[in-house]
Amino acid sequence: MIQLEQVKKIFPQTTVPAVDEITFSINKGNICVFVGPSGCGKTTILRMINRLVEPTSGNIYIDGENILHVNSDELRRRIGYVIQQVGLLPHRTIEQNVGLVPRLLKWPEARIKARVMELLEVVGLDPSETAWKYPYQLSGGQMQRVGVARALAADPPIMLMDEPFGAVDPIVRGRLQDEFLRLQQEVKKTICFVTHDINEALKMGDYIVVMNKGKLVQKGTPMELLSEPANDFVKDLIGDDRGVKLLDLTRAESLMMVPESYPVARDCPCFIDAIQPVKMALEVMMKNDSDVVGVRRGDKVIGTLSWTEIKKHIHRISGD
Amino acid sequence: MEVIRDVFLFIFNNSNRILEYTVNHLSLVLTVLAFSLVLWISVGLIISKYDRFATSVIGLANILFVIPSISLFGLFVTIPQLGLGRKSAALALILYAMMPLVRNVYRGLKSVDKSVIDAGRGMGMSTTQILYQIQIPMAWPVVFAGIRVAVVMITGMATVATFIGERNIGRLIHHGITRGNAEMIIAGALVVSLIALFLDYLMGLLEKRVTSPGLRHSSENY
Ligand SMILES: Nc1ncnc2c1ncn2[C@@H]1O[C@H](COP(=O)(O)OP(=O)(O)O)[C@@H](O)[C@H]1O
Ligand SMILES: [Mg+2]
To answer: What is the pTM of this model?
Structure first.
């Protein structure tokens, strides 16, 4: 668990705080996403958590311990850090880059080798082909994967990820996001994730902190942000398609009608799974030219979802 | 054609003397190189850590570098503890090597990509580990560029030390000039060039061993 208490940073020779009295906490195993325009202080927050930047005032606790009481080098070895510019060591092989922290921690060499191979596999790189290459021989997407593998190497409970998928094209980014979410299901790290892309934030975050000019504007789950944006800044950040974005986060089962008797549902021309997003239901409805889909859980039909219900829902949340 | 034949004939007929001069020449250059590397690389490291000295130290190196070599050699000879011969010659050459070495060590260390150092710090590397595992290895291409300039320069400048008693290839050239003997001058220049090329080649081999293959493609930028 990570807690920030009234954390403030004013850089030397500046007057406006880069981060202004921010308070929040992140629960174990959650992804907390910081989102906001460039220069709003996201990177500074991350760098205060691993003490690359010291706060001007306020306190930061990890698992209840004030991080100022921990040796900063040791603290950093326990926190995985994916930096915005990737920052691979160009004179080291990929194997050496990924094994960096385990070597600092003096793991036995055999264990490091095994761990590196395992991790390259995990981030979707072919170990036997990649391990002996140098960074300049990789593509941008491959480098970012190595950056993530390096941060994961010593199996730190906490990860700081600064725009980790920023330097790749949207298609690769989407794939890296999916793969990372799948990985997170297994490893359950506590993650601080920085992005300026609201869609990435909504997709990756269990919890989102919206920032502007160093100030915390709103914090909440993606659902809360979409359904109750605190002000115009958040509304603008989310964009005009707030309703549709919400449908992407709403499971079909939460809007479905449970019919009096099953035959009605069974008459539906098409079906979707209960846990699929409502957006998918719309897609299926359009394809089948139907106003209604059946909702299934496993083989069982458990309800129906109609165009009228969806419309009502959108009106409800956008308040018009 | 005639000249070339005469030059080779000269070298052939004077091989013992030329060999002696070459050995002297090489030993002076290698002595100077050894001291210069230890001294100036250390100074480069120090000024990159204590930045406030950097401008004045590099400024001093530049000033030394533009003093005409003949006057610096001459000046040292007048100092009783140095006198005619190797001590004065070596000291002067070491001072000339300061500029390419100190400057390139400093530049090499400073030109290391900030984001890489930042990554190292973020991973929990100590300042010393960052210096030895990131900054120095990444500085090698620039440092070697300086070393190679220094080697070629020292080899050429060492010829001037013949005026203060060094019996090296410079003597061949000097005698050639006083006697108006073209073959002698050309033979001297040829041997000096060969020594320089040979040492530069050795440094190239060393550079290849020391510099990571991951940097080699980018070393062409310097
Ligand atoms: N080392 C520094 N010295 C002075 N100002 C800085 C420094 N680092 C960041 N800043 C300033 O702090 C603000 C926040 O920067 P940053 O945290 O990098 O923003 P973000 O990551 O959200 O783009 C910016 O205005 C930036 O110029
Ligand atoms: Mg940033």
So the answer is: 0.84
- The pair of structure tokens assigned to A127 is 């170990």
Are residues A193 and A282 located together in one domain of the fold? no
B219 confidence band (pLDDT: 50, 70, 90)? very low
Q: Starting from the CA of residue A85, give the closest ligand.
A: 2
Q: How far, in Å, from the CA of A19 to the mean position of ligand 1?
A: 9
Backbone angles phi and psi of B66, in degrees to 5: -95, -5
pLDDT at B26 over 60: yes
Nearest to B152 by CA among B14, B39, B29: B29
Closest CA to B200 of B159, B150, B131: B150
- Coil, strand or helix: which one is B160? helix
In sequence order, the β-bridge partners of residue A300 are A297
Q: Answer whether residue A193 shows pLDDT above 90.
A: yes
Nearest CB partner across the interface for B215, out of A74, A78, A91: A91
Instruction: List CB contacts (< 8 A) between B143 and chain A.
Output: none
Return the ligand number nearest the Cα of A15: 1
Query: Which residue in chain B is spatially nearest to A152 when comparing CA positions?
Result: B123
pLDDT at A259 over 80: no
Q: State whether A147 and A48 are in the same domain.
A: yes
User: In the structure, how many helices (H) and strands (E) does chain B have?
Assistant: 11, 0
Q: Which residues line ligand 1 (CB under 6 A)?
A: A 11, 14, 18, 38-44
Instruction: Give one DSSP letter per residue of B82-123, joined into a string.
Output: T-SSHHHHHHHHHHHHHHHHHHHHHHHHHTS-HHHHHHHHHT
pLDDT of residue A264 exceeding 80, the answer is no
CB–CB of B139/B71 below 8 Å? no
Domain count, chain A: 2
For tokens 């070491």, what's the residue?
Answer: B94
Q: What is the CATH number of the domain that holds A111?
A: 3.40.50.300
Residues B81/B49, Cβ–Cβ less than 8 Å:
no
